[in-house]
Amino acid sequence: MLRRKPVSVLVLLLFGILLLLDRYSEIPSWTFAILFLLFLVITVCGSFLIQWNYHLTSLHANKATKNNEIALTFDDGPHPEYTPQTLELLKKHDAKATFFCTGKAIEQHPELFKKILAEGHTVGNHTYSHSKSFGFFGTEKVIEELHKTADVVKNLTGKQLKLYRPAFGVTNPMIEKAVAQLKVQSIGWNVRSLDTTSRNEAAVLERITDKVSKGDIVLLHDTSQKTIHVLERLLLFLDDNGLKSVTVDQLLNIEAYDS
Questions:
Q1: Using CA atoms, how far apart are residues 67 and 48, in angstroms rounded to an integer?
Q2: Which segments of the chain have a pLDDT < 50?
Q3: Which of 9, 128, 232, 246 is the most buried if burial means most Cβ atoms within 10 Å?
């Protein structure tokens, strides 16, 4: 995986060396332009590709596990129509999952949120508003969003959330500072279903089943009927292939809540 410090610092170091050499032998201006563009492209890609761990370290899988386990995760809920169907299917297949919920949705559906916990699933922080402009928030605003959701959950259940999934999978230095200050663990994924795109159910299911193997974390959303249909077939696939869905904290052997 690309890491911010080695990659971007290396590019900047080369830039500095060229500036030094330019004192003794003229370096073409396009060379500097290419290096700057390379740095910019790497930084932009690193901000949108959470698996790179470019700005902050997220946990994406546990390929060292000896158990035939994966972790199904659901973002953006709880949803009054689709989360209950998700829970019903999980119960039917004796599967556990992790729900990264928004504070706003928790406030709107508190009993449904408590039902998620009551049925043995794990919950995590997925910001309060899930704003489309979240990637442009300053550090204090990010902290405010995460605090607000954490407080909603604490007041409702007594649990202090430790797991966080960035909205849209976007990371940047402001989010990095907020995560470090709040001491939460960012959770990513290594199998992205793309269930929120225009792809049909068959394409979404195939994208998952072609890739998934033990130790993987799968990204889904409990916000559409399409995902419900995909989940129904996916759970059958997992059963047929001897794979069991567990919570991310179990898969990764970490704590989901502060005591």
A1: 31
A2: 1-3
A3: 128
